Amino acid sequence: VYTSPINSNNTKQPNSGGIASIHDITNIKKLEQIRTEFVSNVTHELKTPLTSIRGFIETLKSGAIDDKTVAVKFLDIIDIESERLSNLINDILQLSEIENTMTDSDISCHNINDTFKEIYDILEGVAEKKGIKLHFEIENYITIDANKNRIKQMLINLVDNAIKYNKDNGTVTIKAIKKEGTITFTIKDTGIGIDEEHIPRIFERFYRVDKGRSRNMGGTGLGLSIVKHIVNLYNGSINVTSKPGSGTEFIIQLPI
Ligand code: ADP
Hints:
This protein is α+β, with helices and mostly antiparallel strands. It is 50% helix and 19% strand. The chain has 6 helices and 7 strands, in the order ααβαββαββααββ. It has a 5-stranded mixed beta sheet, with helices on one face. Strands 1-3 form a two-stranded antiparallel sheet. Helix 1 packs antiparallel against helix 2 and helix 4 packs antiparallel against helix 6. The radius of gyration is 21 Å and the shape is globular. It binds adenosine-5'-diphosphate (ADP). Adenosine-5'-diphosphate (ADP) binds at residues 161-162, 165, 189, 191-194, 202, 207-210, 214, 219-225, 248. It comes from Pseudobacteroides cellulosolvens ATCC 35603 = DSM 2933. It is found in: Membrane. This is histidine kinase.
């Protein structure tokens, strides 16, 4: 009899005899199944843009290149699909890196005011295209002891979604409050919302409520998985409340 370090809730369990080993085998099988599913999902996700790229190149080679208007249209599609591929590879690498991290590295004391400014600079252009206003609200000057890039990535993924799944001319409010050793981030949008039945699943890898919409928006289906892993790394919590048609609010609490 042995005790597996990994079980369904990722905690160590006391050695409880023969039954535990059956549980362990079940858990190992479950993990293997999760891994197989992940590899098959990744393969599918990578193949889709690649098939499209190769198809358009073939069509160009067999004559379409002579019609400049058509050629430019096809090259634009190839460009978009290549970007999708590149985003997907970045997200897969990021997820795999963070999934293999037990403790955080590169921790530094930095201020959230600067992080908010950097996020604004990165996402302002995307928001502007849809007429969306980004409101950053912060109480005084908040510092945090954490890996700056991870906190920034976590917020970028949430704000990016809040823009992607928003309505034209909507708003996104991003708040940070520090109280008694806990930092609370709130990201609220006025977008399409999420039906209650989907909320428990949105943090799963490659889970999308509307696959077509996510793909059109350049989504990889991995953004919230990355967020969840970063929150777990800091022993934090994440809560979602949403009203379909009115908007969604993500609240993250980090005991840092
Ligand atoms: P994606 O790349 O598809 O956006 P995510 O992991 O970031 O993947 O999100 C998973 C799914 O959750 C999205 O496809 C979308 O259906 C839903 N979702 C995430 N954020 C929001 C939001 N702010 N408003 C509405 N739906 C959202």
